[in-house]
From TrEMBL, chains A, B:
Listed PANTHER family: BETA-ALA-HIS DIPEPTIDASE (PTHR43270), SUCCINYL-DIAMINOPIMELATE DESUCCINYLASE (PTHR43270:SF12)
Species this chain originates from: Rhodosalinus sediminis
InterPro entries: Cyt/Met_Dipeptidase (IPR051458), Peptidase_M20 (IPR002933), Peptidase_M20_dimer (IPR011650)
Signal peptide region: none
Descriptive protein name: M20/M25/M40 family metallo-hydrolase
Pfam families: M20_dimer (PF07687), Peptidase_M20 (PF01546)
Gene Ontology biological process terms, A to Z: proteolysis
GO molecular-function term, one example from the UniProt record: metal ion binding
């Protein structure tokens, strides 16, 4: 079946596709905050209804957390599993948004038209590129060219606690010949990419407690222990002066980037200055003796994502706090073992606790890094399809973010994942004023049509 | 004029005095939070009305911040200036209070009856001990035994920005023979004290900024600078391994405690274990080679009172924050110069800033330590009066907290301050469930009657 009339159909129906996306974006499906549980449920219902409108059998499946959405449509080989997530990040701080994050709109900007709203790029807009490609295909040809299973999650932004159990229980239904995941970005504005290397992640929270209540620093200061001081020491000691992470055994299983991959990356002539300059920075931090792309794609990291303790309101309160806490994430590469690093982190903290201070670790969940098997023909076929749509040679790239589902598809379902997405560096993922370029949305859907055609050709 | 009938009057009128205090405590006069500005004003109005009810000429005086209250009554020597503050600390976190902090009540506890509510001890309950003493004296004798000027401030908990300018402008009106300040505590449950040594304080806020917006730690982590890491280093480096503060020149002007004072403190047999045990601690922190009382009364300190950066809500957000901030207070002793220490702190931070991180210091206001002249006969007279009321020998003590007004009375008005208060260690100043013992309130007022009698005798 030919892609051309389907591409024309996508062009003609763009206004309707945008209208659907806006309805979807208006649902504040923030998975990390229990206050939005009903909205997560509503987003799942919206997806079920939309898949049914395509002619799929689709349903919401309960989990201990937010529901999964599973839909089936089409016949024939290959069997493709498509994954996306309908949950979004919190929109705080709200005062930094120039519009209500859940009242999305298409805006004209100097760099082109953008879809503005929380989730526009991560991941609602991206997942809809694939759904719209399928819709247009069915509209033109009456049926899809192969069997497709849709699988949408609602807990990606909160660590996917229900994902592995759900994959295990439904492995027969979900295992496919190839898993397509649309949750990544372009290499640059012009160059599409297939991500073949993903860092894993370990998420930690550490809570240090001292006195049984907040104390007056004038009455107790100098004699009573201050948990913020202890936490500062714990966090300051996470890195040495060269930017390396100091946890015992942290670099076990971290392989050097092979010379040929390094050469390919060097050939990309990555513009680190421009990359940092767009967010107001001019100097790279982190491991001094590594190239920028190595630091971003191939090296493990430790980052403090949040810290809190004592009085943080307006003015001053001379409190000596009973408690201080931090959230820390470790990006993992190669064969790094999240469980071993969790133990090393606990040990790092506990060795720095003075008498009277206790530590709790309420998180500690992680997923290892993932490496795709690019020798499969589907990878080269998809790369050619992307290159045709964007009129630029597509690349196999690494990515610093973690998409644990890719590893789970391999380990639990035995299904090779292929990560293709159309986000751009300036999409402001997880930040105020998140956007998704209208071009990403439109040419993204067109890309999927070409990929479907390429994967089912002959 | 005899104290005895006045003491009897205080005993008889305790219910009415409590009722007045409850009305005063119900006003949420939180000076650090602009949302409560009208309540601060209301608390000042309440005091003006109460002083007028005594027969004083009293008025509210405008400042650039919250108003001052000044009242005059009585004739003859000595001229006594009485100081207290009507503003209170914020009541957060509200969920840790077992009652509404601004719906005060007298509660029965295993340790006796207490007045529960924000400001009960700091400082509304304390300042009213003096006002009630005057009221009872006037009721019995028709007039006070000497000239008294009441001076109440509404910015003590927010650094008293208007205090020095106001003292300067009104020095002729406020200068007196002796300034009485009721904002301190007993030495222990049984032993009253006159505070003759006060630590000063320098308050700092440091705001570190990196990227122009929050970043996704997966996309930028390892390459972009993280202000929380930098702040952790800055704060961890404030103390060395022995607990000493590392700021350049920090200990300049810090004299060793004279042997005779040390001997007197040793004779107090301070129960450090009990002091710490009451707040769930068992080990002293801070300078290793100093006694507990030295650390609390005589040594300078650096304490982080609050820290904030990145995502601190429920769940996890893999953000690499644009900003991190901390509030730090330095308690000062001897001749330590707040301005020099401010410069040393700025230097300490700036020497630890990597490229791309900038620092702002929005505060940096301080007051030096204060030492009273205990050779004045008034000190011994007041000590005897306190000893009589509490049937326990009163002591001259140091205190770790800062009461900058004491130093300003010396330096701006040339008036020697005398600090007498009836708070107890477990009053939970600045903490949830603040209380003031009913005994503190009642015997506090009785103490002032005896002190007035002693200071005006013959």
């Amino acid at each position: 079946m030919s892609a051309d009339p389907v591409l024309a159909r996508l062009d003609a129906d763009l206004p309707q596709a945008l209208e659907r996306l806006m309805t979807f974006l208006a649902i504040p499906s923030i998975s990390t905050d229990p206050a939005y549980a009903a909205d997560c449920d509503r987003a799942a219902d919206w997806l079920v209804a939309d898949l049914k409108a395509l002619g799929a059998t689709a349903e919401k499946r309960a989990t201990p957390g937010h529901p999964m959405v599973v839909g089936h449509i089409g016949e024939g080989a290959p069997h493709l599993l498509f994954y996306g997530h309908y949950d979004v990040q919190p929109a705080d701080p709200p005062e930094l948004w120039h519009r209500d994050p859940f009242d999305p709109a298409v805006e004209d900007t100097p760099a082109g038209r953008v879809i503005r709203g929380r989730g526009a790029a991560d991941d609602k807009g991206q997942l809809m590129t694939f759904v719209e490609a399928c819709r247009a295909w069915i509209a033109e040809h009456g049926a899809l060219p192969c069997r497709i299973t849709f699988f949408f999650e609602g807990e990606e932004e909160s660590g996917s606690p229900s994902l592995v159990p759900f994959l295990r229980e439904n492995a027969d239904e979900l295992a496919a010949d190839l898993a397509l995941v649309c949750d990544t970005g372009m290499y640059d504005r012009k160059t599409p990419s297939i991500v073949t290397q993903l860092r894993g992640m370990l998420r930690e929270e550490v809570v240090l407690r001292g006195a049984s209540r907040d104390l007056h620093s004038g009455l107790y200061g100098g004699l009573a222990v201050n948990p913020i001081h202890v936490l500062s020491r714990v966090l300051a000691d996470l890195h040495d002066d060269t930017g390396r992470v100091t946890l015992e055994g942290f670099y076990d299983g971290v392989a050097e980037t092979p010379p040929e991959v390094r050469a390919q990356w060097d050939a990309l002539a990555f513009d680190a200055e421009g990359f940092l300059g767009r967010v107001g920075l001019s100097h790279g931090a982190g491991e001094r003796d590594r190239t920028a792309l190595e630091r971003l794609w191939a090296r493990p990291t430790a980052e403090v994502n949040g810290i809190e303790g004592g009085y943080t309101g307006a003015g001053f309160k001379t409190v000596l706090p009973a408690e201080a806490r931090a959230k820390v994430s470790f990006r993992l590469v190669g064969e790094q073992d999240p469980e071993a690093i969790h133990r090393a982190f606990v040990d790092h903290v506990e060795r720095r606790l003075p008498p009277d201070v206790t530590a709790e670790f309420p998180m500690g969940d992680g997923a290892p890094a993932t490496q795709m098997d690019v020798s499969r023909p589907a990878f080269e076929a998809a790369r050619a399809a992307l290159s045709a749509e964007w009129e630029t040679e597509a690349v196999f790239a690494g990515v610093g973010g973690s998409i644990p589902v890719a590893g789970y598809f391999q380990s639990v379902l035995g299904t090779e994942p292929m990560l293709i997405g159309f986000g751009r560096d300036d999409d402001a993922l997880h930040s105020p004023n998140e956007k998704y370029d209208l071009e990403s949305f439109h040419k993204g859907a067109r890309s999927w049509v070409r990929i479907l055609e390429a994967l089912t050709r002959g």
